[in-house]
């Protein structure tokens, strides 16, 4: 069976109204994705996602009145001709797209990232299994920045270490660290991200002794006496925030501790490195035009 597919780029504050409009016109599915590779989460129906720029995909039966729908969409988005397009998609293309972005990847033979649909499968011994939903952006496991961070954690994290995942989003890095035997802390500025991390931790049988999750406001209320230095700080966010957080991260990291920083474009590497004078960085890891920086704090 074929479908009509709509692809539409919107600001986040337009999404709730757009989703209702599309559903009212018979959309059989509405998919929200980050347009700027921000973290993938799953908002409740009608909730506004945390992303600033959103790609909306909607699928309709072939009897859709495209002209009528287009006229209503233009009332919400006057620049519709620039931000929206319709095309046809076959059933097999839909299934292939889902399969392409399903996560099934091993890291250092210590961590196996799998879709939640595989959680009932027999679990192999001697490897930690982390179950998440498929996705296309940060936080899902299919984005190169996340893969580079996971590769480092799987290779290097040891039981008993303390790991901070700052900008935890889906919780993928913090949960991975906990499954590898570390004690993890996840921090995010958005309550929806905190909820997503908490729910994903619960699904993966990671309890509050293994992983604590804070929103940014609660985190900032903690005093210096509340902090135990971290062995590893991982932050898969963007270059600007990484530079702004450099002093904070270095204060939280114990001597000899490591930072794992991603969400960086190769041309931004030098400016991020300059913001961390207390960190000795190794050569950046580059994958698909994204960079990951790994460094050790001077003793």
Give a nutshell description of this structure.
The chain has 299 residues and is α/β, with parallel strands linked by helices. 31% of the residues lie in helices and 31% in strands.
Count of the separate structural domains: 2
Largest sheet: 8 strands, mixed
The value of Rg in angstroms is 21 Å
Give the SSE order as H and E letters.
EHEEHHEHEEEHEHEHEHEHHEHEEE
Oligomer: single chain
Mean pLDDT: 86
Gap from first CA to last CA:
63 Å
CATH evolutionary superfamily of the largest domain? Vaccinia Virus protein VP39
CATH domain class of the largest domain: Alpha Beta
Helix segment tally:
11
Q: Which fold name is given in CATH as the topology of the largest domain?
A: Rossmann fold
Which word captures the global form?
Answer: globular
CATH arch. level architecture of the largest domain: 3-Layer(aba) Sandwich
Uncertain runs with pLDDT below 50, 5 residues or more?
39-46
Content of β-strand:
25-35%
Structural class: alpha/beta
Percent helix, as a range, is 25-40%
* Strand element count: 15
Binding site for S-adenosyl-L-methionine: 146, 167, 188, 236
Organism: uncultured marine bacterium MedDCM-OCT-S05-C75
Function: Methylates ribosomal protein L11.
EC number: 2.1.1.-
């Amino acid at each position: 069976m074929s479908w009509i597919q709509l692809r539409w780029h919107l600001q986040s504050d337009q999404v709730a109204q757009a989703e209702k409009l599309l559903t009212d016109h018979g959309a059989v599915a509405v998919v929200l994705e980050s347009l700027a590779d921000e973290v993938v989460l799953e908002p409740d129906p009608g909730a506004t996602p945390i992303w600033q720029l959103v790609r909306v995909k909607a699928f309709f039966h072939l009897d859709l009145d495209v002209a009528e729908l287009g006229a209503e969409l233009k009332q919400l988005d006057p620049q519709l001709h620039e931000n929206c397009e319709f095309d046809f998609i076959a059933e097999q293309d839909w299934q292939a797209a889902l399969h392409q972005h399903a996560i099934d990847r091993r890291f250092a033979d210590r961590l196996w990232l799998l879709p939640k649909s595989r959680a009932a499968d027999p679990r192999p011994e001697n490897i930690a299994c982390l179950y998440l939903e498929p996705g296309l952006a940060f936080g899902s496991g299919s984005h190169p920045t996340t893969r580079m961070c996971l590769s480092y954690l799987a290779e290097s994290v040891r039981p008993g270490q303390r790991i901070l995942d700052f900008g935890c989003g889906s919780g993928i890095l913090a949960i991975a660290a906990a499954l590898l035997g570390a004690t993890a802390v996840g921090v995010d500025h958005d309550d929806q991200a905190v909820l997503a991390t908490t729910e994903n931790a619960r699904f993966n049988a990671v309890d509050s002794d293994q992983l604590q999750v804070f929103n940014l406001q609660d985190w900032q209320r903690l005093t210096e006496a509340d902090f135990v230095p971290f062995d590893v700080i991982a932050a898969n966010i963007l270059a600007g925030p990484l530079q702004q957080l450099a002093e904070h991260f270095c204060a939280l990291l114990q001597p000899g501790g490591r930072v794992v920083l991603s969400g960086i474009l190769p041309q931004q590497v030098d400016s991020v490195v300059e913001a961390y004078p207390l960190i000795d960085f190794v050569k950046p890891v580059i994958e698909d035009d994204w960079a990951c920086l790994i460094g050790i704090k001077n003793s």
